[in-house]
Amino acid sequence: xxxxxxxxxxxxxxxxxxxxxxxRVLLSLEDIHFMRQTHSDVVxxxxxxxxxxxxxxxVTTSKGVGLAALAADCMPITFESPxxxxxxxxxxxxxxxxxxxxxxxxxxxxxxxxxxxTIGPSICARCYExxxxxxxxxxxxxxxxxxxxxxxxxDLQSGVTWQLNNLGVSVTNLGIxxxxxxxxxxxxxxxxxxxxxxxxSL
Length: 202
Ligand SMILES: [Zn+2]
Known about the structure:
Elements: E1 3-6, H1 20-26, E2 31-33, E3 35-36, E4 43-45, E5 53-54, E6 57-60, E7 65-71, E8 75-81, E9 84-90, H2 92-96, H3 99-109, E10 116-119, H4 132-141, H5 156-166, E11 170-173, E12 196-201
Parallel strand pairs: 2-7, 3-5, 4-6, 10-11
Antiparallel strand pairs: 1-12, 6-9, 7-12, 8-9, 8-10
Zinc ion binds next to loops.
């Protein structure tokens, strides 16, 4: 049985999200692994502890080990299956680099079946406006990110849902927009340093 949690601006049930150690204790985990996220397509398996990993997705088969993705507009995505869990940080760049499908592949190498993904608080299709040129470029590659030429906003949540559904992964989108909802950190909304965490463990 895996456990999943997404924090919010006030910490939700936690109130103490700034403190990793407090979060670890509260969740009764041996360890929580964070990432030095670089919008890469690198997926790493956590076997034992250490410094933050330089990657944008983590997977593990170890019980009691938390995996955390930080985001404030990008998508923190958790992946659950019996015996294997994963987490990914997915923004526009990570979507194009297929970090989410690569997380699924890595989980399947480790024996995962029936993977369920959950898209945490992230910027929505109404709010994620990019230049018209960038919009045309991205929707040419991933048509499900399209909204309209008039708004030239990208729907990253639909884009990653399409990628994951293609792999037979069921996706739940919490439908929380970080820019529109006051309880969440948003980079575009002016939160340049603060982040939500999406955490998963077996
Ligand atoms: Zn929105």
